[in-house]
Here is the input.
Amino acid sequence: MNVIPAIDLYDGHAVQLRGGNPDQRIWDSDEPVEEARRWWELGADALHIVDLDRALSSGRDNDDLVHDIVDESPVPVEIGGGLRGARPIRDLLDPHPTAKAIVATRAWKDRPWLDHICEEFPGRILVGLELKHGTIAVEGWTERTKLTLEEGLHRLDGQDLGGVLLTDIDREGKMMGPNIDTAETAVEELDVPIIASGGISTIEHLQDLEAAGVDAAVVGTALYTGDLDFEDAQEALA
Here is the structure.
């Protein structure tokens, strides 16, 4: 199983937030490109970038920073945050053949659009399935749909996806451990890569996800606070 460092961008900074709340910053850096470089120099096989300004419709974006990181990165990058139209996805994916785009809000609100974008970029679209109090959340986690995990997985069955990013928002930034039950359900129901996120803070958490059949884990807060050492994690999963 692969460990993917997370780089969340907000107002030109790399940040880590508790529960996705911009008012609760756990970690902050004004050099996002340097943070990205640090991870691939340590041996990361991929990076996970989210533009929180786009996701939260703050009126700002971090497009230049995203492109700077992806242009320089020697490893594949998965990019998300407010990608709700075909044009911004094309702008990211067309010049970067190894990059993948993460879509969430529009994927759940507009099924024909998801069908179209998956046809245009087969195997390069990740769908963010982000659970909050048991149902799928959208609009930067500020709205909850009525869709359960099982209903969401059923909707995605048969799509030519690059994977599903499964996030437990209630655990995000709290380092309380991943939700193994939801991970196992996703692995059983879908024949695409499952990437887990939220609450991961120890090597044991990663090993539990690996045992559940998860393909990769996105880790943010624990790497930046030092609670989880990236190289130790890689070695333990080798």
About this structure: The domain at 2-237 is CATH 3.20.20.70 (TIM Barrel).
